[in-house]
Structure prediction request, 367 residues.
Amino acid sequence: MTFTLAADAALLKPVRIGDTTAENRIFMAPLTRSRAHADGTPSDLAAQYYAQRAAAGLIISEATAISRESNGAYANTPGNYTDGHQAKWAEIAAAVHEAGGRMFMQLWHVGRMGHPEISGVETVGPSAIAADMSAHTPSGKQPLPVPRALEVDEIATIVDQFRLAARRAIDAGMDGVEIHGANGYLLHEFASDVVNQRTDAYGGSPENRARFTAEVVEAVAAEIGPGRVGLRLSPGGGAGDVREVDTVSTYEALVERIAPLDIAYLHLLIDPSTPTFGALRALWAGALVLNTGREVDTDFCQMESLAGWGAISAAAVGRAFLANPDLIDRLLLGAELNEPDVATFYAPGPAGYVDYPTLDEVRVASA
Ligand SMILES: Cc1cc2nc3c(=O)[nH]c(=O)nc-3n(C[C@H](O)[C@H](O)[C@H](O)COP(=O)(O)O)c2cc1C
Prediction:
């Protein structure tokens, strides 16, 4: 399917997201690529990969761990908790800026999606309820273990680790950070009334389940300034069968608590025709980034309409950006898009990472 974006399209207009001005409203969604070194240092190819995609209004990095213990869901995912990590991210931020782009770093803790064979430590979560999923560990596919419920003082430590990783991201030259509150990882697990069975201040009511994410956003905003903080949420679902019985009230409580902080943007991974989207849109006066993906490819026609109406500030696009470094040029020309190669999403090395051709390269090759 091709789509032609008019030169005066709403998606091509600049947009202010906190302290950053994005040159257009087509953002690159966070994409784990599993090319980092075993110690969490990003790959030598990462600067090239991200700089190739600098025409995105904003690049949101792959999920990046805030601590060694938080990095247990997949092998070779990066971190930002050592000087070595930070130095490599500084090269990446510089390469993206040099190419004219803007970049936020997505920060995560994988929670009960972690496996000790990858993280090296016991798996933790809000409650002792396992995700009905497997991890790809060094010794093969293993069921995810029953997590240990975090103690309250451990929650405070993790809040602080988010803060420190955010500080490192800014010191590395990133334009901001996106807190990963989506897709079934730790912060999402706390929001879920299915996975979070706690009876303390972090469980029970929607307000209590919102507390951990809110504390992370508050701590990070206090450290680096609210205009450099985004938050990603996936109301209604995520990997690891995390969900909510009452999605609307869960996320209303979270968004109401976050709203006064005036952060750079809220990033929702959601179908915009759902009541949840309508309810949250009504509560959120700030910039809103939408990613409709998962089962369906992004419908650029729908995104353009939503941006034109002001329902969204920007569209985040994952797989199409992964496979098309020159996505925006292709949309302007109505050109065919490269198909993403699923087999190399998480495979090591340059294939399927830095070798997707631009239109110009296709033309040269076929001349
Ligand atoms: C290979 C791959 C890696 C992903 N990694 C992340 C990630 O690190 N953080 C995140 O929040 N979402 C991640 N996602 C979800 C994407 O950001 C996005 O929500 C999803 O791909 C749907 O959007 P799309 O249809 O535009 O690809 C990943 C998706 C894919 C396909």
Remarks:
- The chain has twelve helices and 15 strands.
- The chain has one domain: 10-366.
